[in-house]
Amino acid sequence: MSDRFVKPGNQEHGWNDPPQFSYGLQKDPGGPKRNLLNKRVHAPQLTGPGSEMPSAPVAGVTPPRGMNAPPMDRIAPDTSPRSPSDVTAETEPCIEDVQEPLYWALNACRHTVKKQICDDVERRLKLFEDMWKSGKLSPLVKRRMHGLSQALKSRNWDGADEIHRGLMVDHVSEVSQWMVGVKRLIAEARSLTPQPVNN
Fold it and tell me: Quick check: helix, strand or coil at residue 6?
């Protein structure tokens, strides 16, 4: 493995501690690096003349319990309307929306791929469906699988493969049993001649 993907670690770690790998470094975005938010912000100083405790709370700062703070049971619940992005972040994708592109790709591959391979992929897709319906998959895995299936539907093979790798790295305990079939499906669908998507 290239040393480029190994994070610089603590130089005082033990001789037999495994190296820390960073999946994010493997992507190589090529753009400008984002500003890391690891700078320490100091609290405002209340010393000097006129530094009495303010009677009204400062915006964003909650006073300690004994100082003009309302009891927790009297605070009104948040009833503000949520933006559409908040609602979509919380809603779970539908299993049918995820399965349709996966089975479309499987059926498109049946003409050129061995029956045994297609049957194995189908068995793994059924295992994926069973885990989804029994609640064994986290909402994040479900959303990412929805993104993978949409990438397959739009023939974005690289995007689907990148989502697949991310799931294997970040959620291996949830996806290891069936993700091999999805990986094979992506590879076989990529090798097909272009055909129109039937919806």
Answer: strand
